[in-house]
Amino acid sequence: MASSPHQTHIPLPPDPGENTITHEANLSPVPIYIVTHAGQLPSEFLEPSPERQLVIGFDCEGVDLCRNGTLCIMQLAFSDAIYLVDAIQGGEMLMKACKPALESSYITKVIHDCKRDSEALYFQFGIKLHNVVDTQIAYSLIEEQEGRTRVLADYISFVGLLADPRYCGISYVEKEEVRVLLRQDPNFWTYRPLSELMVRAAADDVRFLLYIYHKMVAKLNQQSLWYLAVRGALYCRCFCLNDNTFADWPSLPPIPEVQFDLLGWSDQMASSPHQTHIPLPPDPGENTITHEANLSPVPIYIVTHAGQLPSEFLEPSPERQLVIGFDCEGVDLCRNGTLCIMQLAFSDAIYLVDAIQGGEMLMKACKPALESSYITKVIHDCKRDSEALYFQFGIKLHNVVDTQIAYSLIEEQEGRTRVLADYISFVGLLADPRYCGISYVEKEEVRVLLRQDPNFWTYRPLSELMVRAAADDVRFLLYIYHKMVAKLNQQSLWYLAVRGALYCRCFCLNDNTFADWPSLPPIPDNLIADDNALEEEILSVLDVPPGKMGRVIGRRGASILSIKQSCNAEIFTGGTEGPPDKVFIIGPVQQVRKAEAMLRGRMLDMF
């Protein structure tokens, strides 16, 4: 078998009662093989046999992975190796060699959400995927079996599943990096040779599956195991519609000869006023949040007029300074979208400010607080929220603590490599055991609904799901704030303040270069030293000539990534939400000027 320079770690099957994966440093690395012909695959995979039954992790990557897309890579995770089957280089012949295994009852394929993978295999290669254990289905079954309310739990993301301490308890930060690249270049998976990032990302999508499989199977009772098998088979068929109503597919697993209560899913939900739990500020050294069952619930108020808000919020005062969690929800949240809800998390209550019902008058009443230096607004990624507030309501958001910025500063302060660390998602931040260590399953549910109906946040009255989702986006922010501030040194705290102010301005471009905005925080006197003076930080906006943005971003984002790596500055583009013809640069003056020069160089016509 061809040798491979690529390696990774595969967690061992868990011991009974083990809650998290063995630290990777304690595991022996396993090889990652890039497969372009069938001879590189194990014989027990190519020749399925009842005497050599297998359980493997399985996934596919591609461009628009469905019947009309392009399946590029198929990942197979064994206990001692990972195989990346290159469907582009190996083509029809290689995939035909894999067909018996993928259709075999003797090889169990563990996968997360099999529907589109199965569709691509069926319509592109005539493969009827069979005998899968779908971890998305298994998660839902365990939730129901253990008595938790099933609210679209099937839709848990793979990142959310990995973050759940019952199954892995790890933060899959790299997934966000790949998502960024895929948004910039949907053809990411077609390029050859496979880059180190592509190999690592493909392997990461399967290397934990066998570990999760063992954890899940140990929890499932006999009834749930049957549901898992039959629903996996039905999910494989889901988008593979043909003219013979699946007559040529394997038969479904029969109901075992035991008495089942086959009443289906319960759709009952206890009625209650809107409430949630807000974690208390952490004790020194505390790693995870106090279990919610031990906390008293706090009310969630839906606010349609200013009189429903606390006076200390409406009338900011140096004698009553506040720190609150803050977020906004809307349709296409930017200058041209619609801000629908503004969430405010206090220590004893959450307020959902209804910008649709309350309108301009309600938002005008909130303006002094949002612009006040006496109220600290803790938010995750403030740029688009600030843009929406500015262009829709004339509010200049001020005095924010942006947890996305804070995360990056802590990573840098503690000496970790900064690979797009600023772009950590809120789900990823919550999953990080240093800050919360929880799985935010409901976020994926709302993402699914938003993809189906972008106007989700406009509907009134607010549904129970809308109230809970809005509250969940802010209720952990005060806890995270205390954890982060305790880690930051004085220099990082200044960076946090000044970059938060610049991020608020980022997309709020006007004709007076922000002259009517509050001044930026000055460098503290005790940080000004002759040998190591801090440099002023600025925001620069660079105009990009028509047709040149592709050159700035580069193939698969290569150009803009290389500039980011060369300069200690943040670089943002307006993307689909706009503005489309500008690049925004934030950082120390010299680094910003360096980035400007490099970006202008990318725009030059090449002769």
Automatic annotation (TrEMBL):
Residues 32-221, 300-489 form the 3'-5' exonuclease domain. The keyword RNA-binding applies. One of its GO terms (molecular function) is RNA binding. It comes from Ilex paraguariensis. Keywords: RNA-binding. InterPro entries: 3'-5'_exonuclease_dom, KH_dom, KH_dom_type_1, KH_dom_type_1_sf, RNaseH-like_sf, RNaseH_sf. It comes from the Eukaryota. Residues 536-604 form the K Homology domain. Residues 1-20 are annotated as: Disordered. This is 3'-5' exonuclease.
